[in-house]
Amino acid sequence: MCSNARHFPGLNPLRACAAIGVMLFHAMGYAGWDRVFLPGPLILVQGGWVGLDIFFVISGFVVGQSALTGIENDGTAFRAKFVRHRLARIVPLYLLTGLVCLLAVDTAPVLGDDRILQVFSHLAFIHNFWRSTLISINPPSWSLAVEIQLYMILLLVTPWLVRQSALRVAGMAVAVALTFRTCAYFAVAMAGSNDPAIFLHAVYQTPGMLDSFGLGVAATIAVRRGSLERLGRTACIALIVVGLTGLLCTSPTITRQVIDGSIWQYPFYAITMRTWIASAALALVLGCALLPFRSDTRFGRLLDHAGDLSYGVYLWHFCVLATLSKVTSLSGWSLAGAVFVTTFAVAEVAWRLLERPVLRYAHKFDRISVPAPATVPASR
């Protein structure tokens, strides 16, 4: 029996909001962290980094669905198609933005003594392993290394996932993440280090980010099995409100504590904090995914397209931010506004000229290389 992946149009606007949150957070941080703590609407920018956790939950939800649908339709042979589609979506723009960052922002990473490590680690999506390569070329791209590694884990465990309950998958993902973060935290502490950067790098390696991604996978299992079909509009809105409230009420405080390093003085808080953020992000993602959203209206199409551009916005914004900071005297909200407009414009061009053509080719390749099963009637 062949099954098709379900489309959730409400997730695209959420993708766009997550990318904008990260972009504005970096813009204000780049201008000077002291500006981030001004009162008023900047409270929203203080928590913009949670857009990354939202991305990981969405990724687990959507990519998990793709993997589960693939193994149901094609068995373990689904892996080739899965890898091809993921690489087509991620690699071209990743390479382009990395090259532009090197040329326009800083060539030092490929000119220094560790240039071979820099190039190799970025091409292999393992630059999150070393502090010297973590944010050396295009800083936001460290999360793509984590995401690729999570995809590899997903490929290995998908045959196991089809037999598991959503609750068990969620519990195991959280348990692995918490166990890893606990071991990493105390390994750094026992080594006698008080450097917040070392704690941050150690604790948030790939296994330490598994709760966000794993909760997304668990959610897609629950949806596929009909466990959440009875959720109505009111329940979806309640999930969105709960998720947003949890993220916006906690993330500004966490931001200050991470920047001043005080968060690492409290082991339980430092180790579990990301799980609470992931849980709030899950509520938001589920609410948006299951809430009816009309993408056939003019405004709906605009929001839907903004979601298509979200990956480009995420990868282009640092290059745009660094360039505008060099060639203009803009700061604060003026800089953030200029980065917003310019980044979306660049992302639009890249979507039309690179991302969309590559994705179309990947889907065309599927039609050419995979004949229709003989058991499927021609009328279908």
Describe the structure.
Helix 4 packs across helix 11. With 380 residues, this protein is an all-alpha fold. The chain has one domain. The protein is built from 16 helices and no strands. The model is unreliable at 369-380 (pLDDT under 50).
In terms of structural class, how would the helical and strand content be classed?
mainly alpha
Overall 3D form:
globular
The multimeric state of the shown protein is: single chain
Mean pLDDT: 89
Low-confidence stretches: 369-380
β-strand number: 0
Strand % is under 5%
Number of helices: 16
**Major sheet description:** none
What is the number of domains?
Answer: 1
Q: What is the ordering of alpha helices and beta strands?
A: HHHHHHHHHHHHHHHH
Cα separation of the termini = 13 Å
Instruction: Bin the helical content.
Output: over 70%
Secondary structure layout:
Blueprint: H1 11-31, H2 33-36, H3 42-46, H4 50-74, H5 78-104, H6 115-123, H7 131-134, H8 142-161, H9 166-190, H10 196-203, H11 210-224, H12 233-260, H13 267-290, H14 298-308, H15 310-327, H16 332-369
Helix pairs in contact: 1-4, 1-14, 1-15, 1-16, 4-5, 4-8, 4-11, 4-13, 5-15, 5-16, 9-10, 9-11, 9-13, 11-13, 12-13, 15-16
Please outline what is shown here:
By secondary structure, this protein is mainly α. It has 16 helices and no strands.
